[in-house]
Amino acid sequence: MKNLVILISGRGSNMVAIAEACAAEGWDARIAAVISNRSDAGGLVYAQQHGIPTAVVNHRDFEDREAFDAALAQVIDGFAPELIVLAGFMRILTPGFVQRYAGRMLNIHPSLLPAFPGLHTHRRAIEAGCKVAGTTVHVVTPELDHGPIVAQAVVSVRPDDTEDTLAARVLVMEHQVYPRAVRWWIEGQLEATADGRIVHRSAAPQLLIGS
Ligand code: GRF
Fold it and tell me: Which atom of ligand 1 is nearest to the CA of 89?
């Protein structure tokens, strides 16, 4: 049974999708803890109601990123996780922290990376006149919103889309693609090619198509 630790900063809908898939599909894994840098993160309530241990490490209590990351790592390691899942965790991580969990930390970003790293991805996609948008699950590397791509999901950008309507359709896909990617990692289905790409051992589609 593999231990997962999920880091959140807000509503935690991706965390919920992963927890529900884990339970419904009988993964050989358990959510060992949900950890947030904000005590008011909505997702903590879900975790508490479902018997998942929670912890808060408030970044405001620390002088700098290094001190925060060191404290966070200590809490994470207390749950002995095989995999760290970033699900709307809104902190930039230090290289030392990323290195500590190299190859076993995943993130989901609401754009088709390498396009639109950073914030306001949906607004930027609309403003750029993109006809597709989507989301990317990737292995975390020191560079923000970078790292080998595990899976992507696409949706069309409609002429009348607003940031909110586009975000809502992308989120539906996030809730499908992230649990799938996490499950693949747990089952050992993912392998890195010599040039550092991530492929599925049995060639399962690493692209989901929404509408
Ligand atoms: C998602 O859009 C995710 O891609 C981004 O932050 C958002 C988190 O949403 N990294 P939630 O907290 O999982 O509902």
Answer: 10
